[in-house]
Amino acid sequence: MTTAPLLSASGLHVTFPGRRGGPSARAVDGVDLDIGAGEIVALVGESGCGKTTLARSLLGLVAPTAGRVTFSGEPLSYSSRALKSYRKRVQLVLQDPSGSLNPRHTVYDAVAEGLRIHGYTGDEREAVAEALSRAGLRPPERFFLRYPHELSGGQRQRVVIAGALVLEPELIVADEPVASLDASVRGEILALLLRLRDELGLSALVVTHDLGLAWNIADRVAVMYLGRIVESGPVEEVLTSPQHPYTQALLSVLPESGGAPVILTGEPPDPSRIPGGCRFHARCQVLASGEADRAGVADRCRTEGLPVLGRRGGVACHWA
């Protein structure tokens, strides 16, 4: 693994205008994140925490309000030509393969679409066949003339992955890549992503709400809450010894955790009205139980904000 990151976000903010002139929603509210060459990073958090918006911003689909994204040391430019070149090197794999694939296109056309958009001049049939083989659909010629409705859910997801691989990207962003699949198929797709990393040196950002998935696939994990990363580090370190109460709560619901699940009260706050102090304090089980009081940090939790967590990882929590 190289020391310089392949993809890097620095001080990233993404805000959306409020309704009827109301306050802006801070979907991403200060994020530093690195992804190294050949590294798989899991971005974890519950729905609405901003992880998909962060992923879209890293892909150049949403321009940041502040901060910047760099790829191979070069700042990302948002001109049409620069983005087209960038998206050849960084590909997206979406959650729902049925929604990602045009039902009127054959598997061959679905995989070849990226080649045609980018003006590929080599042997198209050979490139499509190789991408399908790498994605585990063999012999590939057997799938060329099939339509999405003729495939299983796992096969459809492999076609989506093949469509990303055909351009030989350096990094893929996978947004909940196995959420819509049966449990028996999930392991196969995760094993495929790991094999692609080992064989091709492919980097990946895997967006998920499932810490069990992160444990099985990632080298590093970043836990996101209300627009910020609140804990990050090597996956074994974070998931065997979580420091942030939010990470502890997410882990507590896994069957293998062995303890009683932590039930968080209420919903995540509105990103247009982020509370003062620690942004998790209104739902924090450590604060609610009196443990933060006993540690002498309860007032800081309620009133003192925390700095953006640096790219070296750690935990953003007064109590921790």
Automatic annotation (TrEMBL):
It holds the Pfam family oligo_HPY. GO terms for molecular function: ATP binding; ATP hydrolysis activity. Keywords: ATP-binding, Nucleotide-binding, Transport. It comes from the Bacteria. The keyword ATP-binding applies. Residues 7-251 form the ABC transporter domain. Gene3D superfamilies: P-loop containing nucleotide triphosphate hydrolases. GO terms for biological process: peptide transport; transmembrane transport. InterPro entries: AAA+_ATPase (IPR003593), ABC_transp_ATP-bind (IPR050319), ABC_transporter-like_ATP-bd (IPR003439), ABC_transporter-like_CS (IPR017871), Oligopep_ABC_C (IPR013563), P-loop_NTPase (IPR027417). Belongs to the ABC transporter superfamily. NCBIfam families: oligo_HPY. This is Peptide ABC transporter ATP-binding protein. It comes from Streptomyces lunaelactis. The lineage of its organism: Bacteria, Bacillati, Actinomycetota, Actinomycetes, Kitasatosporales.
